[in-house]
Amino acid sequence: MIIAPSILSMDFSKIPQQLSEVEKSPAKWLHVDIMDGHFVPNLTFGPDFVKSIRTQTSLFLDVHIMVSDPVTFADVFIQAGADLITFHYEALEDSKAVLDLIRKIKSKGKKAGLSLRPATPIQLLFPFLNELDLVLVMSVNPGFGGQAFMPEALVKVTMLKRQIKLMESQCLIEIDGGINQDTGTMALNSGVDVLVAGSYVFKNNIGEAIKNLWENQSH
Ligand code: DX5
Ligand code: ZN
Predict the structure, then answer these.
(1) Per residue in 101-149, pLDDT tens?
(2) Exposed, middle or buried by CB within 10 Å (0-12, 13-18, 19+), for 48?
(3) Residue 198 CA: which ligand 1 atom is closest?
(4) In 3-state terms, what secondary structure has residue 183?
(5) How far is 114 from 137, CA to CA, in rounded Å?
(6) Which residues are catalytic?
(7) Which of 56, 85, 97, 172 is 20 to 30 A off residue 113, Cα-Cα?
(8) pTM for the model
């Protein structure tokens, strides 16, 4: 299991302190939400911000791009220091364009992930499972931190897990939105590999919240 605290909910006046708390914890990834004010109704970080985070931490940078032009921005954020780029199926939809972008990200030595909104059927992502490193199942509508977990996401996780096994794919399953200790346990029981948590981690004691998520895996 991997924990990916989402910096969307950080206190931006204390970035170095909070990064060092994450580094002392069992969390190995940092989830970075890029929003363009078009694909989602919110606007977040640009490449210079991600470059700065990159210089401040050696955590694996899990960059989730909620943008209408993932082809341009995948490159921009790879150059800024992303280790993994996850883009949205809905931003491209055309199978060839999706596959081309997955391959382009991987050709730069980075990992490639594909995400989908709660309303998008999970089966649409199955044709890409042999090429993907990760599928990010959204358990809230993308755009904002602090929303309530949508339990329907667990049905998608179960179906996805079954398909990954069937295809003998190495693809990881990540879940994002409304994750806390309880919903994290449900997600892990359904087959999730990577838990993203924003407000649960950064609006509480960072070390304790991550420890609570980490201890879920033994239950
Ligand atoms: C929402 C983002 C999430 C967000 C999760 O669109 O993709 O990564 O940070 O925040 P919480 O954990 O507060 O739901
Ligand atoms: Zn995210």
Answers:
(1) 999 999 999 999 999 999 999 999 999 999 999 999 999 999 999 999 9
(2) exposed
(3) 12
(4) helix
(5) 9
(6) 33, 176
(7) 56
(8) 0.98
Q: Going by C-beta distance under 8 Å and a sequence separation of 6 or more, which residues neighbour residue 196? A: 4, 5, 6, 31, 62, 64, 136, 174, 175, 176, 177, 179
d(CA 167, CA 201): 34
Cα 150 to ligand 2 centre (Å):
15
Measured over all CA atoms, what is the biggest interatomic distance in the chain, rounded to whole angstroms? 47
Encoded tokens for 69: 């032009």
d(CA 173, CA 48): 29
What residues are in contact with ligand 1 under a 6 Å CB criterion?
6, 8-9, 31, 33, 64, 140, 142-143, 145-147, 176-179, 196-200
Ligand 1 atom with least separation from CA of 149: 14
